[in-house]
Amino acid sequence: MDNRIEKLEGIVYQGVDEFQQHLQRELGEYKYLGGNLYFAEGPQRQAFWTENIWLNPIKITFDSISEAALSLRSIQRNWAPVLFTQYRRGMLIQEKLPPIVQKPRPFPWEVPDAPMGAWTLLDAHTMIASPLCTSPFPAGKIEFVENKTDPPSRAYLKLQEALVRARRWPQVEDRCLDAGACPGGWTWVLTQLGAQVTAIDRAPLDDRLMKNPLVTYIKHDAFTLKPEEIGPIDWLFSDVICYPPRLYEWVQKWLASGLAKNYICTIKMQGQGDFETPRLFTSIPDSKVIHLHYNKHELTWIKVAHDAGYAS
Hints:
By secondary structure, the protein is of the alpha/beta class. It has two domains: 4-140; 156-303, Rossmann fold (3-Layer(aba) Sandwich), CATH 3.40.50. It has nine helices and 16 strands. The chain has helices at residues 20-27, 65-73, 87-95, 156-166, 185-192, 207-210, 227-230, 244-257, 277-282; strands at 4-7, 10-15, 31-34, 37-41, 50-54, 58-61, 79-81, 117-123, 126-130, 175-179, 196-201, 215-219, 233-238, 260-268, 287-290, 298-303. Strands 12-11-10-13-14-16-15 form a seven-stranded mixed β-sheet, with helices on both faces. The protein has a five-stranded mixed β-sheet with strand order 1-6-9-8-7, covered by helices on one side. The chain has a four-stranded antiparallel β-sheet with strand order 3-4-2-5, covered by helices on one side. Strand 8 (117-123) and strand 9 form a beta hairpin. The longest helix is centred in the last third of the chain and has 14 residues, at 244-257. The chain is elongated.
């Protein structure tokens, strides 16, 4: 058969394995492709519960493994597979493509500007591929080199991923507020960058952080402190366990004050999840809501200053 490429009039959504029902609810009408992949006709829909969104999908019909790889290489260099069938054949195709780095990364790490494409097999002679995706990581996944000794919790990996996706992180002497800081996973990341951290929580942080000269601990409910009581900050961080509307109300106070430049906040979910508040967060200019690889039943809101972009 001849090699053929057909543009698809729609978008492919790559769901989060354990929360696929959330994506199904967001999409409404869709065609299930297999695995965690869904196709929805028309322009891109607002969907937060995704690992990746394939923005420019095409269907490629091919006769051989070499033809499949050649079709992808003729479009661009970087491709990562997301397979739910034909695994052996898929791996043979990937072996003929330029290699991509998928080993754990050190932090901080600057995301390359080169696009990262995604592809899957529908059967032995048909694939769907997209050269343009929302995630800069292969198959929407990133792994960091883990420090199993120093951080007081694994939550630090969430912040590392969020900062890499923001394409910006605190610099030495930047002033940061860490709301809901205990036991100190996020504060630990910030001190490693040399930033000054005001850590707020009703419970104290890990003893090592309490003794760190870069950390000022305040025993308080962060949401009841007025921005004027804290003063100007370069970064506002929150991993507080609370209902999403309460977080949104608190963020609005900080936005109105103009005292914070950059924001990264975790939107925690309970039960069936909150599908309205994340949309309110995306209505805030220059911001985005995403599901991180290291997120669980939660989303992350990112807003950085105008002089720095952020990854989707």
